[in-house]
Design goal:
The protein contains 13 helices and 16 strands. The chain is an alpha/beta fold. It folds into 2 domains: 214 residues, Medium-chain alcohol dehydrogenases, catalytic domain (Quinone Oxidoreductase, Chain A, domain 1), CATH 3.90.180.10; 183 residues, Rossmann fold (3-Layer(aba) Sandwich). Strands 3, 5, 6, 7, 8, 15 and 16 form a 7-stranded mixed sheet that branches. The protein has a 6-stranded parallel sheet with strand order 11-10-9-12-13-14, with helices on both faces. A 3-stranded antiparallel sheet has the order 2-1-4, with no helix packed on it. Helix 13 links the parallel strand 15 and strand 16. Helix 7 runs parallel beside helix 10. The two termini are 37 Å apart. Bound molecules: nicotinamide-adenine-dinucleotide and zinc ion (2 copies).
Length: 423
């Protein structure tokens, strides 16, 4: 079968890989009909998230059809259409039963304290082959995959594998209450999805910060208020927009590959921090293999954290879903302490949130489809990776799979979700 294989930092390839086989009674083999590229995959290629095995199949977002199940999988049959949660969980331990699937005691071969297991991730995260492949082995298949009604398309369901559950979780972490003013840092796919999730959870005003023009336009399509950090200092802008108080809640949907502003007042204000940011980046990503302007690690790893703490109101809450790997040690802790902030963070408990999101999509409350700006066949996957990495115009969420009437396939971008839009 064809799969996207990680060979090293700056080196991924589309190549032939062995077909997966049932290895355990709770396994299923799924024929992947749609997969997608996540910002997390970019960390692996840029070098900001270490520890992958050479030869690992990448990808942790998938929709597909069950081909085969082990004897312990009593709830699925070959032919069932499912969305696969990015994280893997046993369903038996106390953490899974409490809905903390990302902290499952049993899924990680490294033991109960070894941390979250997800497809196509570092050895420390289980080292499982991923979903950017024609077929995948899904462990704990009696727990993970969520069956899809016919009324939910592949294009909708693929965004329920990781992006929407993570955004929903981020809005929960941020403790959004009715009427709250919420800032979302990062207008990538996760940040875009967070707009709809924050709104559905009651946000009154939603302000999105990024430096990429077309991503901000996509956020504006969803009727978020937008702030371009290359044109304004985002902290100053948000204080001005909120009567000097700051926002009640922040969702950090950026993570370790945060960028510094390239121009404008925020760039000037941060000029003196240049060396500090360079040092942070080189400590966090000691090995980097950029290829021109592709696979370049973020040049200000702690900047989203700093801005979040500065723009939130006193006694506010910050929900962090942008990924920070274990080697990140920089956080503006004292400033957060002095403001009595609440900080919540972590890997999404995908399985906990997916069923309700499937219902919302089936019921018409949520339509994730417009976030998909390009629909590429596996054939073009390497170019799709590079273009997404460079955040080129129009490339917000890259879905891999057969192009059909369910994907936009061409140039269209659109407003996700709850509000409709102009495109
Ligand atoms: N917690 C989880 O379980 C989970 C799940 C999925 C994704 N993630 C993480 O969420 C993050 C976003 O994922 P994505 O797919 O949207 O990635 P992405 O790389 O497409 O989006 C990141 C966005 O942040 C913007 N950005 C960069 N620096 C910024 C700054 N200083 N301030 C504001 N915005 C800035 C970028 O321009 C980009 O649009 C990644 O870190 C990813 O690893 C976490
Ligand atoms: Zn992801
Ligand atoms: Zn468990």
């Amino acid at each position: 079968m064809k799969a996207v294989v990680w060979h090293g930092i700056g080196d991924i390839r589309l190549e032939d890989a062995p077909d997966p086989k049932i290895e355990d009674t709770h396994d299923a083999i799924v024929r992947v009909t749609s997969s997608a590229i996540c910002g997390t995959d970019l960390h692996f290629v840029r070098g900001t998230m270490p520890g992958l095995r050479e030869g690992l199949i990448l990808g942790h977002e998938g929709v597909g059809v069950v081909e085969e199940v082990g004897g312990g999988v009593r709830n699925l049959r070959p032919g069932d259409r499912v969305v696969i949660p990015s994280t893997v969980a046993c369903g038996v331990c106390s953490y899974c039963r409490a809905g903390y699937h990302a902290q499952c005691d049993n899924a990680n071969p490294g033991g109960r304290r070894a941390g979250t297991v997800f497809f196509g991730g570092p050895e420390a995260a289980g080292g499982l082959d991923g979903l950017q492949a024609e077929y995948a082995r899904v462990p704990y298949a009696h727990v993970g995959p969520v069956p899809l009604p016919d009324t939910v398309t592949d294009a909708q369901a693929i965004l329920l594998s990781d992006i929407y559950p993570t955004a929903w979780f981020g809005a929960k972490l941020a403790e959004i209450r009715t009427g709250d003013t919420v800032a979302i840092l990062g207008a990538g796919p996760v940040g875009q999805a967070a707009i709809a999730c924050a709104r559905l959870q009651g946000a009154g005003r939603i302000i999105v910060v990024d430096g990429v023009h077309d991503r901000l336009e996509l956020a504006r399509d969803q009727h978020a208020e937008v702030v371009d950090f290359n044109a304004e200092d985002p902290v100053e802008a948000i204080l001005e927009m909120t009567g000097g108080i700051g926002v009640d809640r922040v969702i950090d949907a950026v993570g370790v590959d945060a960028e510094r502003p390239a121009r404008g007042p925020a760039a000037e204000a941060l000029a003196e921090k240049a060396e500090e940011f360079d040092r942070e980046r080189d400590e966090i990503a000691p090995e980097q293999h950029p290829d021109g302007d592709t696979w370049v690690p973020g040049n200000a790893p702690s900047l989203a954290s700093r801005w979040a703490v500065q723009m939130v109101a006193k006694a506010g809450t910050i929900g962090i879903i942008g990924v920070y790997p274990p080697q990140v040690e920089q956080y503006p802790f004292g400033e957060a302490f002095m403001k009595n902030l609440t900080l919540k963070m972590g890997n999404c408990h995908h399985r906990h949130y997916i069923p309700q999101l499937v219902s919302m999509v089936a019921g018409g409350t949520l339509d994730p489809t417009p976030l998909i700006t390009r629909w590429e066949g596996m054939r073009d996957v390497m170019e799709a990776y590079r273009t997404f990495d460079r955040r080129e115009e129009g490339w917000t969420k890259v879905v891999l799979g057969e192009s059909d009437d369910r994907g936009s396939g061409g140039t269209s971008t659109g407003a996700a979700t709850t509000a409709g839009g102009r495109r």
